[in-house]
């Protein structure tokens, strides 16, 4: 996950640099020369493409599209601040035009302006550091997508490969009348998706197709479902997935509940001890 954030920051910073090169004034500042108009146009197009690439990376690599857009907004702001602070330190500074008429400045004025200039510099650096710190804290609180976690199950059912995981690793959610519910996520390979008609999930082996469990919602990419858990669930209980292909073929896969949802098994064991 940190790699995604660093890549977003790098792409955003390079995008702003490219946009600066695409402007005549800043190009002369950064390159010592003014590129030809078609080169500046290419730099501007490349800059916007890099910013768009950072946005696409955030949407694809983070938890949801909304989180990706929010994080991208923060990174481009931080990249812009970094560029603003870097430009005055750039070795190729534009020449300063000498004034023909310059009024003499008093020594006291120079002494007074120096602390002000220093304080402004420190304030700027503190703002930059506080912005970076705020985003570090926010990123630490962002969880990895369920199907990208290390505990996600990778397997094959029939001819189709898949990735399967519980939506969260917490105890089951209690709904009306204290019924425990658990949500799961599933994703098949891109070429597999078009061959699958229906996928259902159930605790304990289904006795018939009509009782194969709750169907996953979604036809492409990530599918999701939420199932009711039986009151007698134990570590030896099994979670069964039934997959029906568009050709009518039926395939099944199963896992011990202790391997898929260990926190859920622990919760049921604690409930049994408290009775």
TrEMBL record:
<keyword id="KW-0472">Membrane</keyword>
<feature type="transmembrane region" description="Helical">
    <location>
        <begin position="122"/>
        <end position="140"/>
    </location>
</feature>
<protein>
    <recommendedName>
        <fullName>DUF3325 domain-containing protein</fullName>
    </recommendedName>
</protein>
<dbReference type="InterPro" id="IPR021762">
    <property type="entry name" value="DUF3325"/>
</dbReference>
<feature type="transmembrane region" description="Helical">
    <location>
        <begin position="69"/>
        <end position="87"/>
    </location>
</feature>
<dbReference type="Pfam" id="PF11804">
    <property type="entry name" value="DUF3325"/>
</dbReference>
<feature type="transmembrane region" description="Helical">
    <location>
        <begin position="6"/>
        <end position="24"/>
    </location>
</feature>
<keyword id="KW-1133">Transmembrane helix</keyword>
<feature type="transmembrane region" description="Helical">
    <location>
        <begin position="45"/>
        <end position="63"/>
    </location>
</feature>
<keyword id="KW-0812">Transmembrane</keyword>
């Amino acid at each position: 996950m940190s790699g995604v954030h660093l890549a977003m920051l790098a792409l955003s910073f390079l995008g702003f640099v490219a946009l600066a090169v695409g402007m005549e004034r800043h190009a002369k500042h950064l390159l010592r020369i003014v590129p030809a108009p078609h080169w500046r146009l290419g730099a501007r197009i490349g800059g916007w493409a890099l910013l768009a690439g950072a946005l696409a990376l955030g949407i694809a690599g983070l938890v949801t599209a909304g989180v990706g857009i929010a994080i991208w907004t923060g990174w481009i702001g931080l990249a812009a601040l970094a560029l603003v602070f870097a430009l005055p330190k750039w070795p190729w500074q534009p020449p300063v035009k000498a004034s023909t008429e310059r009024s003499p400045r008093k020594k006291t004025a120079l002494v007074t302006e120096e602390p002000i200039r220093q304080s402004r510099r420190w304030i700027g650096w503190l703002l930059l550091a506080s912005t970076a710190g705020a985003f570090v804290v926010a990123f630490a609180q962002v969880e990895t997508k369920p199907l990208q976690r290390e505990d996600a199950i990778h397997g094959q059912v029939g001819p189709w490969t898949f990735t399967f995981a519980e939506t969260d690793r917490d105890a089951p959610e209690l709904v009306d009348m204290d019924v425990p519910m658990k949500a799961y996520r599933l994703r098949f390979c891109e070429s597999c998706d078009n061959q699958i008609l229906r996928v259902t999930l159930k605790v304990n082996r289904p006795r018939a197709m009509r009782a194969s469990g709750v169907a996953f919602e979604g036809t492409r990419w990530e599918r999701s479902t939420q199932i009711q858990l039986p009151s007698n669930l134990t570590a030896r209980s099994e979670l069964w997935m039934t997959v029906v292909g568009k050709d009518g073929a039926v395939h099944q896969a199963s896992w011990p509940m202790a391997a898929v949802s260990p926190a859920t098994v622990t919760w049921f064991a604690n409930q049994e001890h408290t009775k």
